[in-house]
Task: inverse folding
């Protein structure tokens, strides 16, 4: 299960890599929002679009783009468990150094403590489509 929108490229790359190894996992998405067009989370998670398939008694892998405060992963895990998921495992593309890894099972990249863009991550809707990871210069 991918958390939209930022984790979409990470999820697509991971699904293709698994398929090359003969592993086919189900796919669904949960659109959560906490940043809106700001560089800091509002602290409030909003469900913009929920899952389209039942997760009752199923193991679920949550994929997200960045782990910093952990609020989104925590919310998503609780949301899926409330829907009856059998197990919930989490992985993110980038883990910030200040993040407490409680609630996070794995990550692909130890990111700098900067605001990241590209590879699905955006700054007020811009830079999401960059084919690489970048950091926004603080103003």
Result:
């Amino acid at each position: 299960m991918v958390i939209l929108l930022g984790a979409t490229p990470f999820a697509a790359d991971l699904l293709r890599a698994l398929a090359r190894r003969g592993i086919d996992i189900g796919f669904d998405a949960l659109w959560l929002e906490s940043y809106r067009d700001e560089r800091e989370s509002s602290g409030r998670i909003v469900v913009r679009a929920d899952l389209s398939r039942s997760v009752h008694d199923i193991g679920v892998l949550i994929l997200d783009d960045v782990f910093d405060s952990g609020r989104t992963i925590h919310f998503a895990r609780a949301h899926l468990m409330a829907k009856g998921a059998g197990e919930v495992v989490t992985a993110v593309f980038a883990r910030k150094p200040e993040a407490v890894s409680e609630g996070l099972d794995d990550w692909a990249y130890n990111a700098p403590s900067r605001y990241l863009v590209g590879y699905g991550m955006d700054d007020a809707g811009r830079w999401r489509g960059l084919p690489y990871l970048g950091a926004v210069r603080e103003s």
Summary: The CA atoms of residues 2 and 12 lie 9 Å apart. Residues 8-20 form the longest helix (13 residues). Residues 2-114 form a domain with the Rossmann fold fold (CATH 3.40.50.2020). The mean pLDDT is 91.
